[in-house]
Design goal:
The chain has helices spanning about 10-20, 30-40. It is mainly alpha-helical. It has one domain.
Length: about 45
């Protein structure tokens, strides 16, 4: 069974939101990079 459709734009916005600096916390760039790679692989 295939997984339900997920809007790539919403995934992209979620990744960008997770990269925003929060109070006294640095963004997790390695996790964001992995998420961007997963998103890019969906378009192949």
């Amino acid at each position: 069974m295939s997984e339900p459709y997920r809007d790539p734009w919403l995934d992209y916005k979620a990744i960008l939101d997770s990269m925003k600096k929060k109070f006294l916390k640095k963004p997790n760039y390695s996790q964001a990079l992995a998420d961007f790679n997963k998103l890019a692989l969906r378009f192949k």
